[in-house]
Structure formats: structure tokens, C-alpha cells
Specification:
- This protein is mainly alpha-helical and 223 residues long.
- The chain has two domains: 66 residues, Arc Repressor Mutant, subunit A; 138 residues, GntR ligand-binding domain-like (Four Helix Bundle (Hemerythrin (Met), subunit A)).
- A three-stranded antiparallel sheet has the order 1-3-2.
- α5 packs antiparallel against α11, α7 packs across α9 and α10 packs antiparallel against α11.
- The longest helix has 24 residues.
């Protein structure tokens, strides 16, 4: 596996710069719920959590705001964005369009399935079920690799722009018990199997079933 996958899936990778440590640490705290939606991320607290100075923390907060994890409020700071049921429904609709289109394109054009997908399945299997953040990161990399395999750079850009709310929704579903890591792993392998033989109908069916997790999360949050 390359260093990017190793760093996200098993926590081993090249030494990070202070800027990257700040970004990774704050993002992880948001995903784990240490910073709840609506809470303001104090610079001093972020410095303590990440072990870096204020300058890289400020850069990290700006980057996380640009990606959609935070909202910048003048004179108040950076607030963790809320994920509303409406946004979750909209995300599911767009994600379903992107991923089923990518799968159909791979199958119709008989594109090769990258080894990365199977490697990420193996990394997921090796990750302890209680390591929710590790599972979410592997899930993110898997779906990004699937979309990239379709060979449409604009589609990749669209999907990459959804990663902040999608990662938060994935973590929330696991924390709420709506999603199960073992089921996610099985469905990832089913996707790889269908795509490898270019079985479009099967691949799309598995993706639809896999992504039905988000509507279940929406219902759980509004119950």
C-alpha cells in the first residue's frame, strides 16, 4: 500500500508537519465528537490537543472551514457546522448519482479496477471494529478510489467536495449504531467483485444497498 493509505488506515506514515498535525488533530476531534456541532473550536484548546502553536492551528481552522467542517464567524471564531436532515438527504441523492454513474461507466467501458480497492478492503478487515475513525478513513479512501476509477476528473472534483459532510455522516452512523463496520466491509468486497467482472447491474445494486445507510441515519436522527 502507498504511504497515503498507510497513514490513514493503520496510523503509520511519514512525519507530519506542524500544519498537517494541526489539521489532522482538529479534524479527528470533530469526527469523534470531541467538538460537537455548534461548538466553537478555541485556538488554545486546539493547540493543546494537537501539540502545535497557534499559527499552524489558524491555518488548519481556515482549511477545515474551506472544506466544510467549520464555519468562520467574525470576532467569535470557528464553529463546527451542523448536519441537518435536509443536508443528509441532499448528500445521499448526490452521492447516489455520482457513485452509481461511476460504477456504470467502469462496467460499460470495461475499465480496470484498481488494486487499491482490494487493498483497502484488506486494510479495513485488519482494522479493529472499535477504531471508528480508522474505519471511516478507509471508507473515504475506498469510495474516492471507486469514483476515480471511472476516469472523469470533474466527477472526482465533485465527489471530493462532499468529503467533509460524508465523513461526518459516516462517523455519526457508526457512533449511533446505525452502521456496522463488518457490513460495510462485506459490501465493499461485493462492489469490488461486481466491478471486476464488469457486472453493472450487480455493482449498482450493491452501491444502492450500501448507501441506504444515510437515509437510515436521517430517520434515526429525526425520530
Amino acid at each position: 500500500m502507498n504511504s497515503r493509505k498507510d497513514a490513514h488506515s493503520v496510523g503509520v506514515g511519514p512525519v507530519q508537519s506542524a500544519r498537517e498535525r494541526a489539521y489532522t488533530g482538529i479534524r479527528s476531534a470533530i469526527l469523534k465528537g470531541s467538538f460537537e456541532p455548534g461548538a466553537f473550536v478555541e485556538e488554545a484548546q486546539a493547540c493543546e490537543i494537537t501539540g502545535v502553536s497557534r499559527s499552524p492551528v489558524r491555518e488548519a481552522l481556515s482549511r477545515l472551514a474551506a472544506e466544510g467542517y467549520l464555519e468562520q464567524h467574525p470576532r467569535r471564531g470557528a464553529m463546527v457546522r451542523w448536519l441537518s436532515p435536509t443536508e443528509l438527504r441532499d448528500l445521499h441523492e448526490v452521492r447516489l448519482m455520482v457513485e452509481t454513474h461511476a460504477a456504470s461507466k467502469i462496467c460499460r467501458e470495461k475499465r480496470p479496477v484498481p488494486d487499491t480497492l482490494l487493498e483497502l478492503c484488506e486494510a479495513h478487515e485488519a482494522t479493529p471494529a472499535e477504531d471508528l475513525l480508522g474505519c471511516v478513513e478507509i471508507n473515504r479512501l475506498f469510495h474516492q478510489a471507486l469514483v476515480a476509477a471511472a476516469g472523469n476528473t470533474v466527477l472526482v472534483q465533485v465527489f471530493d467536495g462532499l468529503q467533509a459532510p460524508l465523513s461526518r455522516a459516516a462517523m455519526l452512523s457508526l457512533r449511533q449504531g446505525v452502521g456496522k463496520t463488518e457490513i460495510i466491509e462485506v459490501e465493499h468486497r461485493e462492489m469490488v467483485a461486481a466491478l471486476s467482472v464488469h457486472d453493472e447491474e450487480r455493482a449498482v445494486e450493491v452501491i444502492r444497498r450500501h448507501l441506504a445507510l444515510m437515509p437510515r441515519l436521517t430517520r434515526a436522527l429525526t425520530a
